[in-house]
Amino acid sequence: MIKRLFIDVDDTLILYNSDSKINPYGFWNGDPFEPNFGLINAIGEYREAFPDAMIVIWSGGGRDYARAAADHLFPDNDFAYMEKGWDSFPLVRDTDIVVDDADFSLGNHSFKVYSPIEGDIVIRDEIKTKAH
Ligand SMILES: [Mg+2]
User: Fold this and answer.
1) How far is the CA of 57 from the centre of ligand 1 (A)?
2) pLDDT (tens digit per residue) in 41-62
3) What is the CA(132)–ligand 1 centre distance, in A?
4) How far is the CA of 103 from the centre of ligand 1 (A)?
5) Pairing mode, strands 97-99 and 113-114
């Protein structure tokens, strides 16, 4: 079964150049940031390797916010967008790949959450499995 990706926006796909711990709606607010190119490129490679895979970009800031940031980072993307929260966590299968700066590994689910720094490695490891 093809693994789905669930990717967070703030402090995951985009990394803020500020000392503040959180940047709510930072993309919309124009807070300075750097794209997480390692993760962004890995997601693009995953799409090429698995054209039918479901790739979800989600955010606690809501679906529209996730889509706005993804449209900026990934021109011509074909992702799905969701609000990230307790209502959407049950959609994640245990085998899916979740990348997020927040530790929400507690709670009524058992999927693993990878950090923004290790996300590209995990995604590329999954691409390698296709060759075997
Ligand atoms: Mg975040």
Assistant:
1) 11
2) 999 999 999 999 999 999 999 9
3) 33
4) 9
5) parallel
